[in-house]
Amino acid sequence: MPTIVHGFDWPDRVVVGTVGEPGARTFYLQARAGRRVVSVGIEKEQSALLAEKIEEILDELMNAEGNPVSVPAETPIELVDNDPLEQPVDAEFRTGVMSLGWDPSTAQIVIEAYPLVVTEDDDSSPFDPDPVEVEPAEMLMVRIPVGTARAFAKRTLEVVGAGRPICPVCGSPIDPEGHVHTLPGDL
Known about the structure:
Largest sheet: 7 strands, mixed
Order of helices and strands: EEEEHEEEH
Structural class: alpha/beta
Distance between the termini: 53 Å
């Protein structure tokens, strides 16, 4: 069966947002074009890494000799998006693998998200010489221009950072109910 591609070539909006309270938030990657909205579940760590890698690609492009694309160093003010996720948030799938790329023909960052694949027969080893390739049932592919990519990365890092404060002693998130940390020598 062919993969269903939820494609957005020039979306009106693409954001990472959350539902829930800090400590119990669920993260979503959401794209909208007109009235069509697609949301996929994403881990907090995936969100942060995606934003950081987008920033790296944009910085490399900005400093690349002979690059014909004008890449903004800062988020263009007109592209700042602090609005909540489009409601209702109904995830198409939970993201497993993501890929990130650059399309020089359209001067766009390309984000691909694939569903988390859980197989019942998980006897495979990461060193299996003949791993079974599973074609995903669906995927999300979003193509965004450099200014939108800069705004997406900035917002995503802000959303990730808006969670529970980090304990300066152990580096773990502090729970609202209280926090007990164990240092390596305390065991």
